[in-house]
Design brief:
Structural class: mainly beta
Number of strands: 12
CATH superfamily: Rieske [2Fe-2S] iron-sulphur domain
Bound molecules: FE2/S2 (inorganic) cluster
Low-confidence stretches: none
Number of helices: 0
CATH architecture: 3-layer Sandwich
CATH topology: Rieske Iron-sulfur Protein
Strand content: over 45%
């Protein structure tokens, strides 16, 4: 079952900015682009580099290691939807901003 957590004002990056968020053993990156928040897993699926220092190009972040670009909304590599980083929904409500984390996978 997924879990929703409230983000504090200190955790939220300013418009055009980014922040690192460590939660439940994961390292997430929060981006604030054109008034909207986006959260992705920090870890390039190519060779695992951190995307935290990657150049932001509109809705894409470019991996600083080899230059692959990932869409902040879908997590997909540009033009290659099979290769992606995890994305985490963020909702802005009247009483705050919330991040939704996936639940544990159940063993089959
Ligand atoms: S590790 Fe990210 S593009 Fe190679």
């Amino acid at each position: 079952m997924s879990r929703r957590m409230a983000l504090t004002a200190e955790q939220l990056p300013p418009d055009g900015g980014r922040a690192i968020l460590r939660v439940d053993g994961r390292c997430l990156l929060l981006f604030h682009v054109d008034g909207a928040y986006h959260a992705i897993e920090d870890g390039c699926p190519h060779q695992g580099s951190s995307l935290a220092g990657g150049k932001l190009e509109g809705m894409y972040v470019r991996c600083p290691a080899h230059g692959l670009r990932f869409h902040l909304g879908t997590g997909c590599l540009a033009n290659v939807p099979e290769m992606k980083v995890a994305v985490y929904p963020i909702t802005v409500e009247a009483d705050g901003v919330y991040l939704t984390l996936p639940g544990e996978e159940s063993a089959a």
